[in-house]
Amino acid sequence: MIGKVSIGKSFGGICAYVFGEEKGAQVLATEGVRDTSAAHMAADFNAQRELNPNLGKAVMHVALAWPAEEKAQLSNERMEEIARAYLKAMKVDPEGTQWALVRHQDQDHPHAHLIVNRVDNQGATVSDQHNYRNSMEACRKLEKQYGLVSAQEVSQDNRRAVREQLPERAAAKLYVQDALSRHLPHATSPEELTAAMQRDGIGVQATYQKEKLQAVVFEYEGHHLKGSELGRAYSGNNLAKTLEAQQDQVQQQRAEVGAAGQQYGQHRLELDLEAFGREYAAQKEQAEKAEKQAQERTKLEQTPKPPQPSIERSGGYGIT
């Protein structure tokens, strides 16, 4: 399963595209918008967009695709179910904002288009941060959840077959690109990325300026490839930005976990102090009671006893 996310400005443009007659378009599901025509759907999206007029790029478009092998089991109902699960995995509430799912029939492989309004029903902005990584993780999760063919494995098999037919340098370039696409989303520093690439037999030569990554060259089987040659996302500057953003996210997650742990520890400390206070109060009360009893005993012992009355006896046994 593949979910390619793009952010745009025009609901009219994307709605006109997905309703194209040549696509064999079929609207499978909608939330908060009409499905009668592209114009009606775009008008409904734009009406809600006015709740947050300062958000320029309010359109989230996701092209969902599956391998041709999945066509038999991907009924319209199942595709809708997976699309709803995808939204949730992307932290988009399916009932909290407008969206539409439109299936196309113009390719051998099953695919559909998901249009989401980034202005939700309350006027808040649906986040578009880390869309590439989040979508990839969501797809891997849903492949396991629904027993789908792994698009990653299919892609790797296809690209491996292509590499075998390419000249050496082009094959090396494709191999390094594959490795970067797998390792970059999980790295938070140049060192982590370098270690991961080296495990795949790829050397990394990084150039720094003022302790910041400026350029990078990858080496595989004697071929030296600049990051920018592999794609804009892999230039030194863009790699630095990606790694920094991912590091910030990890640090934020760790801070949240630490804060939660600290709060839990403080709560436990308060509970322990409260329990100690109760125990101390009980022991103090018991000690004061014992001391009071001891004082009362001492006081009784020190109080003079009254003399005992004496009984005089006569010499005889009779009464006189």
Descriptive account of the structure:
With 320 residues, this protein is of the alpha+beta class. It has two domains: 2-148, BirA Bifunctional Protein, domain 2 (2-Layer Sandwich), CATH 3.30.930; 166-287, no CATH class. It has nine helices and eight strands. The protein has helices at 11-18, 38-49, 76-89, 131-146, 151-163, 168-183, 190-199, 227-230, 236-302, and strands at residues 2-8, 26-31, 59-65, 99-104, 111-117, 203-209, 212-220, 223-226. It is elongated. The model is unreliable at 314-320 (pLDDT under 50).
User: What is the helix/strand order?
Assistant: EHEHEHEEHHHHEEEHH
Query: What portion of the residues fall into strands of 2 or more residues?
Result: 15-25%
Strand order of the largest sheet: 1-3-5-4-2
Number of structural units classed as domains: 2
Indicate the multimeric state.
Answer: single chain
CATH architectural type of the largest domain: 2-Layer Sandwich
Number of helical elements: 9
Structural class designation: alpha+beta
**What is the mean pLDDT?**
83
* Count of extended strands: 8
- Let me know the largest β-sheet: 5 strands, antiparallel
Q: What is the CATH C-level name of the largest domain?
A: Alpha Beta
